[in-house]
Amino acid sequence: MHSFKKLTLLAGAALISVTALLAGCGTSTPAGGTEATKNTVITVAATPVPHGEILNEIKPLLAKEGIDLKIIEFTDYVKPNLALADKEVDATFHQHIPFLDKFNAEHGTKLISAAKIHVEPMGVYSHKVKDLNSLANGAKVAIPNDPSNGGRALLILQSAGLISLKDGGNVSSTVQDIVKNDKNLQFVELEAAQVPRSLDDTDIAVINTNFALEAGLNPLKDALFLEAKDSPYANILAIREGDESRPDIQKLVKALQSPEVKKFIEDKYKGAILPSF
User: Fold this and answer.
1) Which of 36, 43, 180, 202 is deepest in the core (most CB within 10 A)?
2) Residue 2 falls within a domain, yes or no?
3) One domain, residues 150 and 209
4) Total domain count for the chain?
5) Kindly report the CA angle at 224 between 220 and 226, in degrees rounded to 5?
6) Same domain, 95 and 134
7) Confidence band (pLDDT; 50, 70, 90) for 38?
8) CA dist list (Å): 121 to 67, 75, 87, 141, 162
9) What is the pLDDT of residues 158-168, one digit of tens each?
10) What is the dihedral of CA 74, 270, 62, 85, to 10 degrees?
11) pTM of whole model > 0.85?
């Protein structure tokens, strides 16, 4: 009986000692007695290049602000916005305002621009011709099939002197708005991400710069014609309406528009992509 009591006392003392040890070194409680707060996690949907690369560059900046940045990469333009609208992510980084406006109109969503980050001049590329003047009659031309980028591609072709659009054209122009087409160009409309893959099957292709870079194309060296650098199609950070005042969103915007990001864009992309802040 005495031995049992002695064992019980020893076990109790051991338990107290272990508890005290855990309390002393196993938690993140600071000297002030309040429990340390965990970093806030913010999730951004983005296309890999250059958006994912730029986001990876700001992870250390956000970590200093108590923000853990999680990046989810997509290879199309629609799914990121759907994820944002469904509150699966906190922001998207892959599009310009005309595309966002079209998306909102078509889906009844309330997504807004939080900040302009950079411009990606769209370009005309080819594996078959070395200049646009040598395009044959009836040449095949690949353009994006989404409304805003399709219209943007047609405006570029108009600027290159290949076509003319009704009333000068706009971002909503379609191939049905072409009023002059002296070379009888044949248009192939594809999902934007698929346009670079069409280069072997078409004569020219109008490609978004992010997909051109992913395909190993250099806009400054490989494009036969490049959109003007004062393009209104700045790529934006998009968020849900009402999230503008969230501290984590404000920190994300500040990091994306930081001097460090401006230098990163200028050094890495060497003019193929331009900061817009």
Assistant:
1) 202
2) no
3) yes
4) 2
5) 60
6) no
7) confident
8) 31, 19, 30, 18, 18
9) 999 999 999 99
10) -30
11) no
Are residues 106 and 181 both part of a single domain? no
Range of the domain at 85: 40-120+233-275
Locate tokens 């290049």: which residue? 49
> What pLDDT, on the 0 to 100 scale, is given for residue 1?
43
Question: Between 78-85 and 97-107, two packed helices, what is the crossing angle to 10 degrees?
Answer: 60
For residues 144-159, average pLDDT: 95
pLDDT of 4 strictly over 60: no
Query: Same domain, yes or no, for 128 and 222?
Result: yes
Provide mean pLDDT across the span 136-148: 95
Integer angstrom CA distances of residue 238 from 66, 86, 101, 104, 127: 21, 14, 11, 12, 35
- pLDDT class for 26, splitting at 50, 70, 90? very low
What is the pLDDT, as a whole number, of residue 37?
59
Same domain, 154 and 201: yes
Q: What is the average pLDDT across 140-149?
A: 94
| Claim to verify: residue 78 and residue 171 sit in the same structural domain | no
Q: How many residues does the chain have?
A: 277
pLDDT of 185 above 90: yes
pLDDT for 254 beyond 60: yes
130 and 218 fall within a common domain = yes
| Residue 32 domain-assigned (yes or no) | no
215 and 137 inside one domain: yes
